User: Which sequence fits this backbone?
């Protein structure tokens, strides 16, 4: 998966299509990501000794194929490519402007 935590992404499919956000969590085994503040769902929670219960708003996971990384230099979304440096280190770069993605 080419997406990492804290990457700036744009949602390209689903109910929040076109919105941008930051990756809060990556779920590798299921190929899913959670974008902070987007794809919100309502969950009914029973009261217990820790919380009083009620309806909570939570961020649901999106499939990783429904988001694309946004380059900070050219401000376009793309799939990063892996570039191997001369010393053997790998880095992710933009396919359009060749800028390194942090």
Assistant:
């Amino acid at each position: 998966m080419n997406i990492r935590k804290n990457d700036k992404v744009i949602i390209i499919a689903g109910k929040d299509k076109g919105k941008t956000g930051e990756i809060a969590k990556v779920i590798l085994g299921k190929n899913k990501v959670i974008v902070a503040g987007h794809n919100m769902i309502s969950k009914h929670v029973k009261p217990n000794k820790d919380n009083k219960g009620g309806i909570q708003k939570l961020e649901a996971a999106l499939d990783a194929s429904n988001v694309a990384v946004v380059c900070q230099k050219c401000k376009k979304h793309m799939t990063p490519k892996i570039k191997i440096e001369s010393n053997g280190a790998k880095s992710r770069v933009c396919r359009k402007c060749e800028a390194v993605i942090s």
Notes: The chain is about 0% helix and 45% strand.
